[in-house]
Write a structure and sequence with these properties.
Elements (H helix, E strand, L loop, with lengths): L2 E8 L3 H10 L5 E5 L15 E2 L6 H21 L5 E3 L2 E5 L2 H14 L7 E4 H7 L10 E5 L3 E3 L1 H14 L3 E4 L3 E6 L4 E5 L3 E9 L5 H7 L8 E11 L10 E3 L6 E5 L2 E5 L4 E2 L9 H14 L9 E9 L6 E4 L6 E5 L9 H12 L12 H4 L6
Parallel strand pairs: 1-2, 1-12, 2-9, 5-14, 12-20
Antiparallel strand pairs: 3-8, 4-8, 5-7, 6-7, 10-11, 11-12, 13-16, 13-17, 13-18, 14-15, 15-16, 19-20
Length: 372
């Protein structure tokens, strides 16, 4: 017997979990994940930062709108608050990063993610580990926070289950075909039926679309490498995250060392991303030039996937001309920080409702139609 749901959400990362939770308030929803565990490829490998100054205009608007929704996650489910304040310094240390910093400050002036500016001396007071010989100036995002990523994901999953949601893991989608009243969703061991299919499959969003005969939108999975390196005594545990405005590296305190990245964005095939050893070596060299940290060894490294739409902004909504098929994908490297607001907006667009007035994004800016 085929089990029928109002909605089938494909993909069990942050995007899928959050939109499934929102949709389950008024619908029967099944959340489908290929892996045996949820949040395997992108969500579970995030740098865990809420950064209002990061990303394009739509991303920044959704990130700022998500701030109060992170508050409600804590209040509604009685959890420890998922955000922990940690400012971000965008530090200029050479001509390239100084030019990039100017563009960053100007593009955010008067809008979401607006930045304060710091002199070289002020930058050194915020992060004494910066190299005084090369530090020029910085921009300060004082609204940035660390995020308990898995805590947020688990809160959405608990809420989804409380609303009667069903989770299927370890069973990838093999086929998607219209059945007259919606879609037949062929899994490894069973076939489900749903009136609406939401493609929240991250790096696999285009292949899933192809299964349904829906045009691919041109999503590009990109690798992001992270590593941990000891730097005992060099950084205060509550010190800021420091990033290169030209996006060549970043680091933040972690234990007795740093969590760092070469800020790589190499296109890769969907799969289990591996860290870039060359990227790590480059990042360590450049961080050592910009700071007095003296990084020498790597304690641990890993890679994650960040999947981008062609214009770098997320995709949410129904596909024009295809009944009951929609996307929530292309979150790039910003999926965690904007997840709460994006899920609310996506649920509205996928069910034919209006975008809430307190989330200042236009439906057209998110629509799959912009790539068709």
């Amino acid at each position: 017997m085929t089990t029928t749901y109002d909605v089938a959400v494909i993909g069990g990362g942050m995007a899928g979990a959050s939109v499934a939770y929102e949709l389950a308030s008024d619908n029967s929803v099944v959340l489908i994940e290929t892996e045996s565990m949820l949040a395997t490829h992108s969500t579970g490998r995030s740098a865990a930062t809420y950064l209002p100054s990061y990303g394009g205009p739509v991303v920044r608007a959704l990130t700022v709108a998500s701030r109060k929704l992170f508050d409600s996650i804590s209040a509604e489910w009685g959890d420890v608050h998922p955000l922990d304040a940690r400012p971000v310094l965008w530090a200029a240390t050479d001509e390239t990063s100084d030019t990039a910093l100017t563009g960053m400050i100007e593009s955010r002036s008067g809008g979401p993610g607006e930045l304060g500016t710091l002199s070289a001396a002020e930058t050194l007071r915020w992060c004494p580990a910066m190299n005084p010989e090369v530090t020029r100036r910085a921009a300060l995002d004082n609204e940035a926070h660390d995020i308990d990523v898995l805590g947020v994901h688990q809160a959405y999953i608990r809420g989804f289950k409380a609303r009667g949601g069903t989770i299927v893991t370890g069973s990838g989608v093999r086929s998607l075909s219209p059945n007259g009243s919606g879609w037949s969703v062929g899994l490894v061991k069973e076939t489900l039926a749903a009136g609406l299919v939401v493609n929240a499959a991250g790096a696999w969003a285009d292949p899933v679309a192809s299964l349904a005969g829906v045009p691919q939108l041109g999503f590009v999975p990109k690798r992001r490498t992270l590593f941990m390196s000891p730097a005992p005594g060099k950084l205060a545990g509550d010190g800021p995250t420091v990033g290169d405005p030209a996006e060549r590296w970043y680091f933040k305190p972690e234990g007795d060392g740093v969590l760092a990245s070469p800020a790589d964005a190499d296109p890769v095939e969907p799969g289990d991303a591996k860290p870039s050893e060359l990227g790590i070596a480059r990042a360590m060299e450049e961080i050592n030039e910009a700071t007095t940290l003296g990084l020498r060894t790597v304690r641990r490294s890993w890679g994650g996937l960040r999947t981008f739409a062609p214009d770098g902004e997320p995709v949410a909504g129904l596909v024009p001309g295809v009944a009951g098929f929609g996307f929530l994908a292309g979150q790039g490297g910003y999926g965690i920080q904007m997840a709460p607001a994006l899920a609310v907006v996506a649920a509205a667009l996928l069910t034919g409702s209006s975008v809430p007035e307190d989330i200042p994004v236009r439906a057209e800016a998110l629509s799959p139609a912009r790539f068709l």
